[in-house]
């Protein structure tokens, strides 16, 4: 019950799930651990539960040595699938 209340208290615009299918922890973008080591992009975060690195903007595992724009250019199919999910 406490977890549900915590999740409900996160503003919709700040909600992010860990992209690892074994984890998928819901957290706020502020809760996700900022990774100063991954300075290539400002979106680098780590899940506080799984501790895996991910991009808070692209909402995918961390795209090392690529900006978000480069990642999106190279991975258009995942963006198409994501847009289908947003319709529902």
Overall shape: it is elongated
Order of helices and strands: HEEEEEEHH
Mean pLDDT: 77
Relative strand content? 15-25%
Helix proportion range: 25-40%
According to DSSP, the number of beta strands is 6
What composes the largest sheet?
Answer: 4 strands, antiparallel
End-to-end distance, in Å?
A: 26 Å
What is the tally of helical segments?
A: 3
Uncertain stretches = 83-88
Identify the strand order in the major beta sheet.
3-4-5-6
Q: Given the helix and strand composition, which structural class is it?
A: alpha+beta
Radius of gyration: 13 Å
Describe the fold and architecture.
The model is unreliable at 83-88 (pLDDT under 50). Strands 3-4-5-6 form a four-stranded antiparallel β-sheet, with no helix packed on it. It has a two-stranded antiparallel ribbon with strand order 1-2. The protein contains three helices and six strands; from the N terminus they run αββββββαα. By secondary structure, the chain is an alpha+beta fold. The radius of gyration is 13 Å and the shape is elongated. Strand 1 and strand 2 (26-28) form a beta hairpin. The two termini are 26 Å apart.
């Amino acid at each position: 019950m406490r977890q549900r209340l915590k999740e409900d208290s996160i503003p919709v615009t700040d909600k992010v799930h860990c992209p690892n299918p074994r984890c998928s922890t819901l957290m706020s973008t502020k809760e996700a651990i900022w990774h100063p080591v991954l300075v290539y992009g400002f979106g680098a975060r780590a899940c506080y539960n799984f501790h895996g690195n991910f991009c808070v903007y692209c909402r995918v595992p961390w795209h090392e040595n690529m900006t978000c724009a480069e990642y999106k250019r190279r991975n258009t199919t995942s963006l198409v699938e994501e847009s289908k999910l947003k319709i529902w």
